[in-house]
Write a structure and sequence with these properties.
Layout lengths: L8 E6 L1 H5 L8 H15 L4 E6 L7 H6 L4 H25 L4 E5 L8 E2 L2 H9 L3 E5 L9 H11 L4 E6 L20 E3 H6 L7 H10 L3 E5 L5 H6 L6 E4 L1
Parallel strand pairs: 1-2, 1-6, 2-5, 3-4, 3-5, 6-8, 7-9
Antiparallel strand pairs: 8-9
Bound molecules: uridine-5'-diphosphate.
C-alpha cells in the first residue's frame, strides 16, 4: 500500500487483444473491468495516465490488404476499430467514477475530442485519463508507434507495453525451455540481438527520444501498480 511511484506520467499501450481476453473477437467485460481496477490502482498513487488502445480485437488493416483490397483503406478501418475500444474504455472508466477523455487522431467529433496536445496535457494535469484513439491518424502505422509518439509528445516518463507475457525473453519460451526473462535490457542490445520489443518504427522513436519502455503482463493482478512503484516486474528497455 505504501511506496512512492517512480513515474509521474505514464503512457500505457493496451492492445486490442488485451481487451479481448480469451474471447475470439471484441471486448470482454470482465477483462475491461480488470483493466479499470489496474488503472485505478495507479491513479490512486497520483500518477497521470495516457492510454493508447489498439484495434486488433476488431480489425487489422493487413487483413483487408491480404484480400487484395486497398491497404490504406484497411488501415483507416483499423483506426476506426481503435475508436470503438477507446469509447468502451472511457465508458467503463466513467461507470467506475474515473474521469476519462477520448482524443481521436481522426476527426469524429460527435464521439470524441480531436487530438490536441495542449488539451491532452491539461487533462493529464487534472488527473483525467486520456485515451488516445485512431492511432496516429495515418495508415501504414501501428498503435505501438502511436504509443511511442504520444508518449514522447506528452512527455511521459515511460511507455508501458501491456502484454500477455511477463516480459522479454532471451528466446521464445514456448519453443526453448532454457529461455530466461530479462529484467532490463538496453535499446542497443535489443537491436543487436534482434529482440522484438515493439515494431521497428515505435522502437526507433523511443530509442531516439530516450523514452524507456517496459513490457509487462497486464493480466497479472497488481502488475501495473508494481511497475509504477518500481518493483520487480516485467522487462525494462532503456538507453
Ligand atoms: N492503424 C493505422 N495507423 C495507426 C495505428 C493503427 O493504420 O497509426 C491501423 C492498422 O491497420 C492496425 C489497426 O489500426 O492494424 C489496429 O491497430 P494495431 O494493429 O496496432 O492494434 P493492436 O495490435 O495493438 O490491437
Amino acid at each position: 500500500a505504501q511506496g512512492k511511484p517512480v513515474y509521474k506520467r505514464i503512457l500505457l499501450k493496451l492492445s486490442g487483444e488485451a481487451l479481448m481476453g480469451d474471447d475470439a473477437f471484441g471486448i470482454n467485460r470482465q477483462v475491461l473491468q480488470h483493466m479499470i481496477e489496474e488503472i485505478r490502482s495507479v491513479l490512486d498513487l497520483g500518477v497521470q495516465i495516457g492510454i493508447v488502445v489498439g484495434g486488433g480485437n476488431i480489425f487489422r488493416g493487413v487483413a483487408l490488404g491480404a484480400t487484395g483490397m486497398d491497404r490504406a483503406t484497411g488501415d483507416y478501418m483499423g483506426m476506426l476499430a481503435t475508436v470503438m475500444n477507446a469509447m468502451a474504455l472511457q465508458d467503463c472508466c466513467r461507470n467506475n467514477g474515473i474521469e476519462a477523455r477520448v482524443q481521436s487522431a481522426l476527426h469524429i467529433e460527435q464521439v470524441a475530442e480531436p487530438y490536441i496536445r495542449g488539451k491532452a496535457l491539461r487533462h493529464l494535469r487534472l488527473g483525467r485519463v486520456v485515451i488516445f484513439a485512431a492511432g496516429t491518424g495515418n495508415p501504414f502505422m501501428t498503435t505501438d508507434t502511436t504509443a511511442a509518439l504520444r508518449g514522447a509528445e506528452v512527455g511521459a516518463d515511460i511507455v508501458l507495453k501491456a502484454t500477455k507475457v511477463d516480459g522479454i525473453y532471451t528466446a521464445d519460451p514456448k519453443k526453448d525451455p532454457t529461455a530466461t526473462m530479462y529484467d532490463e535490457i538496453t535499446f542497443d542490445h535489443a537491436l543487436r540481438t534482434n529482440l522484438k520489443v515493439m515494431d521497428a518504427t515505435a522502437f526507433a522513436l523511443c530509442r531516439e527520444q530516450g523514452l524507456p519502455i517496459k513490457v509487462f503482463n497486464i493480466n497479472k493482478k497488481g502488475a501495473l501498480r508494481r511497475v509504477v512503484l518500481g518493483e520487480k516486474e516485467g522487462t525494462l528497455v532503456h538507453s
